[in-house]
Each structure stands twice: as structure tokens, then as C-alpha cells.
Amino acid sequence: MRRAAVFRLLTAAGLAVSAAACSSAPGSAPDTFSVWDPYPQFAGDSEWVRTIEACGAQAGIKIQRQAYDTTDLTNKVLLAAQQRTAPQVLVVDNPVVSTLAEAGVLRSNSDVGLDASASSPNLVAAGTLNGKTYGTPIGANTLALYYNKAVLSAAGVDPASVKDWASLDAALAKVKAAGKKGITFSAIGTEEGTFQFLPWFWGAGAALTDLSSAQAVSALTLWKSWLDQGHAPNSVIGNTQTTSWQEFATGEYAFAENGTWQLQNAKKAGFEYGVIAIPGRTGGTAPAPTGGEFVTVPVQDDKGTESKAAQIATCLTGPDRVLATDTALTYVSAVPSVQEQQVTALPELKVWVEAVRNAKGRTGDNLGTRYPRISQPLWGAVQAALTGAKTPDAALKDAQAAAASAK
Amino acid sequence: MRARLAAWAFVVPLVVYLVVCYAYPLYTNIDLSLREHTVRTFVYGGAPLAGFANYATVFADPAFRTALLNTVAFTVVSLVFQYTIGLALAVFFARAFPLSATLRALFLVPWLLPLIVSASTWAWLLNSESGLVNAVLGIVGAGPVNWLTSPSWSLVSVTIANIWIGVPFNLVLLYSGLRNLPAEVNEASALDGASGWQTFRYVTFPLLRPVSAITLLLGLVYTIKVFDIIWIMTRGGPSGSSSTLATWSYELGFGSPLPRFGPSAAVGNVLILMALAAGLVYIRAQERR
């Protein structure tokens, strides 16, 4: 009796350990593929999941789909790759692609027979490292300025008059004079903050290779002047893009810098809204950073598995299927012909399609994995300047020094 | 023989647990901090040993000084207020009165709430534009304070939130400590003509010392590694003004698309050493008594 008890105890302990250690099943060419994506908002019965399953069925593969929070996904994939349990197909945020490629986690398109040539080159650039492209964009989003029609008309501002920074400033001054609030955005000390700052940074003509240029300083000075004059609330320093949207949704604000993904929420906001492109300093549309994910093929031990995975990736990003996915995500398609279809179906997307055509990848210009080392000091500088801890000039000089020293 | 086997069998689960959940992660963290990792070596192995280069990088970073000072200030101020308020409430509740049990249960709410809820609630309350605190200040006639977005207030704000969360823990431990004190001593001091304050100062408080010591030690270990509240409320910002070693370690390791595992692990180890030092001080103090 007692021996049996001891035996049971030991078995239980042993099982617990082996269960913890061996959750992965090694082997070649599994008949079930795992697909990881950063879309936890889509449940198992959504159109997106049905699309994945259909693409799997086309390749004769059963699909096990797993959704992660987008900020979690990078680390989850790195850890899984370390344990040789990376998913067969990975949908991942575009600035992360070069990091994962650098880590040797992803196969390049030429290795597995994936083709990204149907997508716009400015979007594919984010997934290109040292002349090789890793994955295909599933769609794109970017930033523009939402405006509240009632607030603007009460202040006597015609949104079409906002063509450059000077006219935007003038519009903000009129809004303030009318007793409403000007503009809200997100300047939080994370990648989100840099993402939101880049349209102004690039719109001034600055480049990520030189954070302390006069153009860069002018962009940061613009933001700082909005806070000083009360055109933008102090809360932008801590705002995520979601909290910034919540401020705009109160109906008190004239403008909000936000993304394609808020279109559904904008319809629910309960007031009339419009969208204009973010103006460059002296006019024209400022290049906004591209958002959106790439469908990629992680490295596996087996060539056959990789090429099957590439088939599924091709199917997921194929023009016939991607329209439904991009509509569900409220993304602009990466494929120009599909963009045309989207605008035909929904004319209000025209502004967004324009913005996406003008957009730039953050990791483009072959910055690749150097981008995170530049982005971090940049959001630090934005925060330091907006809180008044440093002047825009000094903050960006320090940021450039930090970015140059971190290789 | 069989008895020994059984004895070992009882030890095995504990040893396995300790090795799997403590020794191995600790070893991995030390190993991470001593190597020069890139994302590629993290996945495929083969990172060269870097000695203490990661520690040197971390110590030379101006952010380290800020994070260290913030950690100390955050921990000390939190502990002082949590303990004082917790003790005052414990003494208050030690005398049974109608509804005291209900009230005491209500004081536990901060402890029972998930941290994401309490931290988000504090973030809303303290919001510069739409927060309730600034609205109340406005009624009183005071100007708005940028609680979370001003470098001089952000650390104060997260400390206040942390004190609020930590009071129930102190209350519970100190209250049960008070209940375990022999009632005769209090009666004796009352018979000797001691005032209420004198009884507390010269009788109750000294008798409560062992409970106070363990409360403060546990509080220290919990507070020094606080991450969630700060991260949710300020992300350690603006520009590092409310970053502690815990949030800085996370920021290095997971805060950007390109992780810096070596320095991140190094900061984590510094934090472990600080907690360990506090534990040793406690054990020494226990032995001396």
C-alpha cells in the first residue's frame, strides 16, 4: 500500500516535470500547421479564421490558429524559435520582420517561393533586409487626421484649407478662440509615440539617420508649441493611441491624429467626422509610417513544411481573399488593384489609400534592426521636450548621440 | 530502507519544484546577463561570454542612476506610509465596535482588485485633462496638476497608488499581530495608570516588533519589484522620471522591437541582490534577538 503510494507520488512528480519540459512534439512535416497572428479581436468563427482554414484546406493541411497581443508576439516567437517550436505561418507587425529575419527565425521569400511583387514597393520595403524580402504584407494602415465637422464649422474652419503646418496652426488658433480643444495625439514613451511623431518628422523633411537635423527640431518644436499654446492637451505625453482616441470621442476636439483602425469607432462616435491627410511642413501629404502585418514563413527543419507554409501564406495574401481580410481589419490593401476595389466599394477610403501610397516603412532605407535603436531615443526626446525637461534642440541632440552610439 | 525511500520521495517534489521554478530560471538569468546576446544568438545559441560588460553598460547608463534613486524613494516612501496607515487602522479596528468587521472587509478591497483595474482607475483619476482629482482641485480653486505627465509628479503619483494598494496587506498582518498580544499586559499597564498613548508607545508597539519586522520585510520585497502599477500608469515616463529598476529591466528586454536581453537580465539581477540583502539584514536582526 505504502509502496504504491510512493510510486504514485514519483510518477506524478515525473509526469509534472515531463509535461513542463516536453510540450513540443518534434517530427517532420506535421499534418497540422500552427498559425500565429496578432488579431485577438477575431474569434474562432470570424471571417479571418475561416479564411485561414480554407487556405489550409487548399494545401491539404489542418490549421491550429493562435492569436496573441501584438506586443507579446515578438517575444513569443523568439522563445518558440529557441525551443524549435515556431509556428509554420506567422503574421507579424511589419517593423518586427527585420528583427526576426536578423535573428534567423524567418525564411526569405526566394527560399520558399513566396512572391511579394503584387504589393506596393513602399510597403514591401519594411520587410526587406540586405536585398532579401521576408514575407508579404497582408494589408496596411497608417495615420491621418480625423476632424470633428461640428467643431470645425463652429470655429469657421474649412478642413480643405489645412494644407501645411501654418494653415493647421491657424485652424487650431480659431478652434481655441471658439472655446473648443485643438488636437490630440499620442506621444507616449513607447514605439507608439515614435509612430505618431514620424509623419511630422518626415513631413518636415527630416531623416531617421539624423535625429538632430534642423528639420527634426522644427517638427518637435511644432508639437511643443501646441502644448505651450494649449492647442493640444498635456495628457498627450501619456496618451496611447486608444486613450487619445477616447479624448477625440468626447466631441470636444477638432482634430485627432489616428489610424485606419479607428474607422469603425468613428462611426460610433455620435458626431460627423472627416479625414484629411497629415500635411507636410510646406504643403503636400506628409509621409506617415506604415502599419500592418506581414505574413511570413518561419524556419522549420523540413523543406516540405516550409513550402507548404508558403502556399498558405500566398493564399492568405492572394488578391481574391485579402479583400475580405482587409475589410474586416479596416486595413488598406497592399495590392494596388485591390485598393481600387476598396475605394469603389467605400469612397471614404480614398484618403487612406492616398496616405498609404505616401507612407514609408519605419525599418526601410535599410535601417532594419538599427531602427529600434533610433526609435527609442527619439520617443525619449519627444517626451523630454514636451514635458519641458529639455529644449527640442537639446533633446534631439542627445537622442542623436544615443542613437549613434548604440549599434 | 523503505522508510528512507519514502522520506526521499517526499523531498523529491519539493526539490524538483525548487530546481524547475527557482534554480533554473535564476541560472538562466545570470547566464543571460554574462553573455553578449543578439537576437540571433538568443535563438541559435553561441553568444560569447562578455564577463561583466552588460553590468558595466547598465551602470554607465544615466538611466540607471534615475532608476535606482526612484526605486529607493518609491520603496521607502511606500513602506513608511503603508506601515503607518496600516498600523493606525489596525489599532483602530482592534477595539471591536459595531460594523467593524464590515469596515475591515471593505478596507481589503484594494488588495482584492486585479492590479490592471486599480492601476487603470488611478490613471483615470489622475488624468491631466479629464481626471477627477484635477476636477476636485479646480473646485477648491487650485490649478490642475499634471500628475502623470509631469516629470516632477509622476513618481509621486505612482507612489500614492502603490500606498493605497499596500495598506490592506499591512492592516491584515498588523491586526492579527495585535489580536495575538496577551490582553493582561494592556490591563496591567492600564492599572499602572498609563495613558492610551503610553500603553501603545511602551507596551503594544514593542511587543508588536516581530510582526512589524516581517510585515516590513515582506512589504519591501513586494514593493521593490513593483512593475504593473508603474507600467500601466506611466510606462516609467515621462522620459524615465518614474522608472524603477523593475520597469527599466522590462523596458530593456521587452519595451522595443529589438530586445536587449543582456542588460535587461543584469538589471534584474541587481534587483534580486537588493532584495537578498534586505532578507539577510532581516535574518541577522532576528538572530540578534
From TrEMBL, chain A:
Keywords: Signal, Transport
Superkingdom, natural source: Bacteria
Span of the signal peptide: 1-29
Pfam families associated with the record: SBP_bac_8
InterPro entries with a match to the protein in the record: SBP
Keyword Signal: yes
Family recorded in the similarity comment: Belongs to the bacterial solute-binding protein 1 family.
Record-given protein name: Extracellular solute-binding protein
Organism from which the protein derives: Lentzea indica
Classification lineage: Bacteria, Bacillati, Actinomycetota, Actinomycetes, Pseudonocardiales
TrEMBL record, chain B:
Membrane topology: Multi-pass membrane protein
Transmembrane annotation, as ranges: 6-27, 39-60, 72-93, 105-125, 153-175, 211-233, 261-283
Cellular localisation: Cell membrane
Domain ABC transmembrane type-1 residue range list: 68-282
Keyword list, A-Z: Cell membrane, Membrane, Transmembrane, Transmembrane helix, Transport
InterPro entries tied to this protein: MetI-like (IPR000515), MetI-like_sf (IPR035906)
Family as reported in the entry's similarity comment: Belongs to the binding-protein-dependent transport system permease family.
Name of the protein this chain belongs to: Sugar ABC transporter permease
